[in-house]
Fold this protein.
Amino acid sequence: MADPKSESKSDDDVLQRLRAEIADSVDEELEMEMDDRRLSGRDASLQPGTDPDLDRRFYFKELIRLQGELVKLQDWVVHERLKVVVLFEGRDAAGKGGVIKRITQRLNPRVCRVAALPAPSEREQTQWYFQRYATHLPAGGEIVLFDRSWYNRAGVERVMGFCTDDEYEEFFRSVPEFEKMLVRSGTILVKYWFSITDEEQYMRFHARIHDPLKQWKFSNMDLESRGRWNAYTKAKEIMFARTHIPEAPWWVVEAVDKKRGRLNCIHHLLTQVPYRDLERPAVRLPRRSVRDRDKTGPIPKDLFVPSVY
């Protein structure tokens, strides 16, 4: 018979974790509002294992600093006509989307875009496997972030039985050559795997179920993935063993702590694309001539959005 005290403690843990998830959602909204607030100075470097909860002030300051470096990297990519591809893989609820959001938050969407492909259509299922991914690869001066990628075949397709054994083996024969061709063509390819624990995924799924703002993220596939944790683990290990190549190695992001994972991933990404700060020419806004001013009548009041706030 279950111990009531143990069950009560478990319930308390769940409530604490749910509160932490809500606080994290608030933090996400705060980040979006900080464009005009630049915090001065920097805290001392965070030493691993010294602080279980990343200080929010430090997190915001460091995030904005790293995002400033991403803007410099973006300018360098455009200036040098570089082609950059970043793959984000990991279990469901591992935090891939959160990191992608922070990377793209301050960047030009014409330069840095996200490719998050749905399940293949009937037509796409008859094509060369990599064909639908290849159409999203960058031209010179572009960065493409794949929110899941061609490695779907090594993960969800294998575990859920969406591909045959022959298709699975052909993928492993092809993917190293495909990635080597990308690198030889001048593409910078970076591959990230976001690692979380079984317990952490369980808690994040609970947060999605109970948070109205996150319920859209939860799907039947999430339920299936919970029941096949070990199968996904085995598939991941096989994928690493067969696709971790010198030209395109895997990088594992420890993502149980979301904020640390985000900062560590962005910091590492900045080291994977050599760049330098470009000098920007001084810009002066021209004065508008009074004579050129348009002569227009007042705008009708019913065209304005109501001032509710």
Notes: The radius of gyration is 23 Å.
